Amino acid sequence: MANRLPHASESTKQLREDLQHLTQTVEELVNATADDSRSNIKELRSRAETHLKNTRARLEARGERLYGEARETVTEQADVLDDYVHKNPWTSIGVGTGVGVLIGMLIGRR
């Protein structure tokens, strides 16, 4: 899991830079619209569309990667929990009962 942190930091940094570039391009597009210079607007619009597509693609890729990592982590945790329950059934029953009582008390207070 420690290996994922530097990669996540790089992804976050790249995403931040992409969003800054996109914001700058959109601001330039808005400012150029005031001039109403058609050639300038077309160029800026093209740049904005390119940055938007690239940013969207990176966001989708990052979302899919994060989903896969989360799914893998949850699967690993479920396997560890399953193993623990099979090795310690009475402890697991006691913990489950305690959690159930606690939730029942919290619901009953309302």
UniProtKB/TrEMBL annotation:
Gene3D superfamilies: Apolipoprotein (1.20.120.20). Keywords: Cell inner membrane, Cell membrane, Coiled coil, Membrane, Transmembrane, Transmembrane helix. The keyword Zinc does not apply. Pfam families: DUF883, DUF883_C. One of its GO terms (molecular function) is ribosome binding. The chain crosses the membrane at residues 90-108. It is found in: Cell inner membrane. InterPro entries: DUF883_C, DUF883_N, YqjD/ElaB. One of its GO terms (cellular component) is plasma membrane. It comes from the Bacteria. It is a single-pass membrane protein. Belongs to the ElaB/YgaM/YqjD family. This is Membrane-anchored ribosome-binding protein, inhibits growth in stationary phase, ElaB/YqjD/DUF883 family.
